[in-house]
Amino acid sequence: MIYKLIKILFIIAGITSIAFYFLNDWPVWPIFVILLGYIALILVLSTNIQLNFFVKAYHNNPGFSENAVALSFDDGPTEETLEILDILDRHQAKAAFFCIGRNIEKYPEIFKEIIDRGHIVGNHTFSHTRKMGFLSSKTIQAEIEKCDEIVRQTAGLNLNLFRPPFGIINPKTKRALENTGHKVMGWNKRPYDAITKSPEKIIHRITRDLKKGDLILLHDNMPKTAPILEQLLVILKQRNFRTVRPDKLFDIHAYN
Ligand SMILES: [Zn+2]
After folding, report:
1. Where is the NodB homology domain (predicted)?
2. Which residues are 58's β-sheet partners?
3. What DSSP string describes 29-68?
4. What is the CA(5)–ligand 1 centre distance, in A?
């Protein structure tokens, strides 16, 4: 609703500036300012999942009853996932894995292993394409449904949770999710591990200002994640943080 209002206001401003340009000899720059302003606003709104602007998502739960934080891993399953599962086992931690359909097809046994070891899995689309922000709602829906179908065939589960690739949620994603009915799980601790080289920096970004009920985002498709996770779990223990599985943090169901 607010988005529609913003869109209408920008359209009115755009038409007015074009009319003034032709009829009243106004300069051309107001037209560009309005256009760029609109593009910038949409970019900010669709790439900041925590704003809950287009879709309400689960990011953290500061009111959680225990001194616990939650772990989540995106972009698997891969061969790296197995070591991560071993580390989680050693620390008796349960996490959420948002898996890419294409990777589940490639590593069905690793995918089943995630579930067998007591973690939950969620939908992270079929292809995780870089064009995510430019897809039609129909294509996004197909991406989500294809991943769902692979999970059903591989593990017999109906996924309830979705995490958008790159955290992009725009009006098209919103429409697709209205049709598929998935709940969206975001995060509130994103260390940008995929684009940051230094493990120390990644751990610092997670642990500085870490509070109970926080949800951490990592990726199980990189060799550096295992040592980072090992260190992180030691720090969590030193700070008396337990880990809680994300579905339990928000009291929601991972499957239908
Ligand atoms: Zn991803």
Report:
1. 67-244
2. 185
3. HHHHHHHHHHHHHHHHHHH-GGG-SSS-EE---TT-SSSE
4. 31
Question: CA 160, CA 163: separation in Å to the nearest integer?
Answer: 10
Cα first-last separation, the chain: 29
Cα(2) to centroid(ligand 1), Å = 28
**What residues pair up with 16 in beta bridges, in sequence order?**
none
DSSP annotation string for 95-128:
-EEEE-HHHHHH-HHHHHHHHHTT-EEEE--SS-
Query: In this predicted model, what pLDDT tens digit does every residue of 37-86 receive, in sequence order?
Result: 988 988 888 888 888 888 999 999 999 999 999 999 999 999 999 999 99
pLDDT tens string 80-100:
999 999 999 999 999 999 999
CA 74, CA 81: separation in Å to the nearest integer? 10
- Residue 183 host element (H or E): strand 183-185
Q: Which residues contact 199 (CB under 8 A, 6 or more apart)?
A: 224, 227, 228, 231
Report the C-alpha gap between 57 and 50 in whole angstroms.
7
Place of tokens 């995630």: 114
Interval between CA 179 and ligand 1 midpoint (Å) = 21
Measured in Å, residue 119 CA sits from the centre of ligand 1 at 18
